[in-house]
Design brief:
- This protein is of the alpha/beta class.
- It has one domain: UDP-N-acetylmuramoyl-L-alanine:D-glutamate ligase.
- It is built from 9 helices and 13 strands.
- The chain has helices at 40-50, 66-74, 116-124, 141-150, 181-188, 193-203, 242-255, 260-275, 287-298, and strands at 4-7, 11-17, 32-38, 55-61, 78-84, 90-96, 102-107, 131-135, 154-158, 174-180, 208-212, 218-221, 226-229.
- A 9-stranded mixed sheet has the order 5-4-1-8-9-10-11-12-13, with helices on both faces. It has a 4-stranded mixed sheet with strand order 3-2-6-7.
- Helix 2 (66-74) links the parallel strand 4 and strand 5.
- Helix 1 (40-50) packs across helix 7 (242-255), helix 3 packs parallel to helix 4 (141-150) and helix 5 (181-188) crosses helix 6 (193-203).
- The radius of gyration is 18 Å and the shape is globular.
- 48% of the residues are buried.
């Protein structure tokens, strides 16, 4: 049976509620602190699982990471390939202001303890046609891409956080890029949405591109046609896991054979629900919630 292997990060998120994002040289007080499970890898695995897809997570945590693997298991994510590192678990310092906007500092920890032995072990349990999802929060991504390509996997890459190292990766092996405008500019060299879509596809002709545009919605280029979707208006509580929710639900739609238009709509609704709730993984909705909202929209 076809599955998704998400070789990704696992973080403990220290979320500070603040009046505004701290400025350089400024000291402010936080009026709340929460310790949550996070990391783009973990969030996207949970989004995929909540969207009804079989997902296997691969990654590393420290001795302090039991709550991370426990949470994945709670949502039905397979954790056989989540190993224990001698390093402490990766963590993030997250400020969330009164308008729900966030600012994030990452410490990689165990996420940067991925070695070739682990990569080889994970790939031995994959089959041609399986999907591999990657973000830019673990080390040795290039080696993972090379091994996945040899194994005949469909590689989906979310190059976040964006940095100069991205363009040194074997991006010819990527089947689907999932990125925002900042990441799109880093890879394509262009700034406008259509230029980014065509620029990436021109550099990597075998790829498809999913581009999120903030309050301008999202678009998807399959090499032949650009599909567009506006945002679903909602009251913002916390934007922390919005992009990861969008990614998980879009990929789940593709795997299930939905049209690009249906994938974009489903992902947009899911992201709108996520931002209307506080927290990261906990804010990600279940598929039945999205289906109820879709039925309501379609009946109008």
């Amino acid at each position: 049976m076809m599955k998704v292997i998400n070789f990704g990060s696992l973080n403990l998120d220290y979320v500070y509620s603040v009046d505004h994002i701290v400025k350089p040289g400024e000291t402010i007080s936080s009026y709340n602190l929460q310790i949550n499970c996070g990391g783009k890898g973990l969030n996207q695995s949970i989004a995929l699982a909540k969207a009804g897809v079989t997902v296997y997570h691969a990654g590393k945590v420290g001795a302090d990471g039991g709550m991370l693997t426990d949470l994945l298991k709670t949502y039905g994510v397979n954790t056989d390939n989540v190993l224990i590192s001698d390093s402490r678990s990766g963590n993030a310092i997250i400020q969330v202001d009164k308008n729900g906007q966030n600012s994030i500092v990452l410490y990689p920890g165990a996420n940067h303890d991925i070695d070739e032995n682990m990569i080889n072990s994970v790939m031995q349990n994959c089959n041609p046609g399986d999907y591999l999802l990657l973000q830019n929060e673990i080390n040795n991504i290039g080696i993972i891409m090379e091994q996945a390509h040899k194994a005949g996997l469909t590689i989906i890459f979310n190059p976040s956080p964006a940095d100069a190292s991205i363009n040194k990766l074997p991006l010819d092996f990527v089947s689907i890029f999932v990125l925002n405008e900042i990441e799109g500019k880093e890879i394509s060299g262009f700034e406008t949405a259509d230029e980014i879509l065509h620029g990436i596809h021109s550099k990597y002709p075998a790829s498809k591109v999913l581009l999120t545009l903030g309050d301008k919605g999202s678009c998807y280029f399959d090499g032949d046609k650009i599909y567009r979707q506006g945002i679903i208006e909602c009251q913002v509580a916390d934007t922390t896991a919005a992009g990861d929710t969008f990614t998980g639900y879009f990929i789940a739609g593709l795997i299930k054979g939905l049209s690009p238009e249906a994938c974009l709509k489903q992902a947009s609704i899911a992201a709108s629900v996520a931002v209307s709730r506080p927290g990261a993984a906990a804010s990600i909705p279940f598929l039945n919630e999205i289906e109820e909202m879709l039925n309501g929209i379609n009946s109008l």
